[in-house]
Every structure is written in structure tokens, then in C-alpha cells.
């Protein structure tokens, strides 16, 4: 701002301590209250570095007005700003333009605006009367305290969210551990049940094998001790007796009746086993026991 004229009266009030972005927002709210449709395209609207020389675009029916704000408190706004805004107005096809300063305009700027007739100037006095009393902005210390408070709040919120997330993760891990433990216990119970059933089955199989072996041994010993029965004459079917001829009736009457009686042979008494036969029966019994032991699974 070298070469610019200093203001004739430097102000020290709430308006001078408001930053340029806040001043743009105050003006946008004011014109909306006057019935204008406001498009806030200045750097204070979105943080852009360049606004193209226009801070607000006002529309109402057939009127289209451009607004440029100079938040200067130490230097006067020169006539160059008037000519620049006039050229932008022509390029945009606007019907008018407003140049606002929170401080003062040079005499040349006022004359240029009067000659053109399309640019209206609003200085610091008119601006303060238009907006009315405004709130005192917080001091640098207060802003620092606010930033610290916001950071502390954000830190506390972040820690609480992190703690809640950790608790949730621990809870999920605990529930997962319980589920895994129950599954392992269930599997262990099933394994124990299967083991017990297998032992019972093996015991039953062994008992059945021993029973079959004993049956085999007893049957073998009975077959050795009991001899096969001999066939006697009484077991053979005899033919039916034929009547004797009549010529021999007298002779038969004088014969002894005992000679014609059938002779019956009785079976001899069973003989006693010899020592060799007893040893043979014992050997067969031992071989049957060995076969049973080989085919029976161990418990």
C-alpha cells in the first residue's frame, strides 16, 4: 500500500477489530435482510485466495449488483478501485456496483464514482450506520483460550471414543474366547464319550470271544469223552415172523419155546480214557485258548 494516502481519522472500535471474512458475512446477512438474493463469492465464503474483484453478487427482480468490500482502516481507497469495479460490472453485465470501505475514500475516488454514475461508494461512517452495533470480537488471548478449549474437548472426545472402541474389542474377544472354550469343551466331551463307547465295545467283543472259546473247548472235551454208540441187533428192524406150515405145527409144539425167542445184545459200558487221549484233549484245549487270545483286542 505504498503511495496511498493515510486516513484523516483512524478509528478504534469493534468494526476495525473484525476480520475481513467476518465483515463479508455481515454484509451478506444485511443484504439478505433487504430482500436481495445474495451469492457470497468472496474469499471469506470458502477460503479461496482470489475473488475476481467481487465479494457479493446481489439479485432482485431485474437488478444485478456487484459488491466489493475494502476492509482498510489505515489507508484511503483510491480511484483505481472504482475503475476496476466498473470494468468488472461491464464484463458481468451487471446493472450496478457498490464499493464499500470500513475506512475512507480519496477525493479522486469520489469524483470518479460521481462521473460514472453506476458505482456507489459506502465509507466507514455509512457502513457503521448501515450495520449498526456489532459484537466485539474476541481478543487474541481469548481466541487462543478458545482454540485450547476446542483442542482439549477434541482430545477428550477422541480418548473416550478410543476407550469405547477398546472396550468393545475386549468384549468381542472375551465372547469369542468363551465361544471357543465351549466348543473345545464340547469336542472334549464328545471325544470322551466316543472313547468310553469304544472301550465298552471292546469289552463286549472280548467277552463274546471268550464265551465262544469256552464253548469250543467244552465241545471238544465232550466229543473226546463220549464214544460213538454202537449199533445193536435190537436197533435193527426184524422182519415180521411168518406162521409155520401146518406140517410142522406138531414139531413146533414139542420144541422148547426159548430157542425161538429173539436174542437181544446190550451195549457195553463206556470205557475209561487212556492217558494219551487225555493229553490230546488238553493239547486241543490249549490251542483253542491261543487262537482266542490272538483274535481278542487288548483293553
How would you portray this structure in words?
This protein has 299 residues and is α/β, with parallel strands linked by helices. It has a domain of 124 residues: Trna Endonuclease, Chain: A, domain 1, CATH 3.40.1350.10. It is 56% helix and 9% strand. The chain has nine helices and five strands. It has a five-stranded mixed β-sheet. Helix 4 packs parallel to helix 5 and helix 7 runs antiparallel to helix 9. The longest helix is centred in the middle third of the chain and has 86 residues. The chain is rod-shaped and about 180 Å long.
Shape: rod-shaped
Look up the CATH topology of one domain.
Answer: Trna Endonuclease, Chain: A, domain 1
Characterize the biggest β-sheet: 5 strands, mixed
Strand content: 5-15%
**Number of separate helices:** 9
The order of strands across the largest sheet is 1-2-3-4-5
Number of strands: 5
Portion of residues within helices: 55-70%
Output the helix-strand order: HHEHEEHEHEHHHH
- Unreliable parts: 231-236
What is the structural class? alpha/beta
What's the gyration radius in Å? 66 Å
CATH class of one domain: Alpha Beta
Distance between the termini: 107 Å
User: Roughly what is the average pLDDT, rounded to an integer?
Assistant: 78
CATH architecture tag of one domain: 3-Layer(aba) Sandwich
Indicate the multimeric state.
single chain
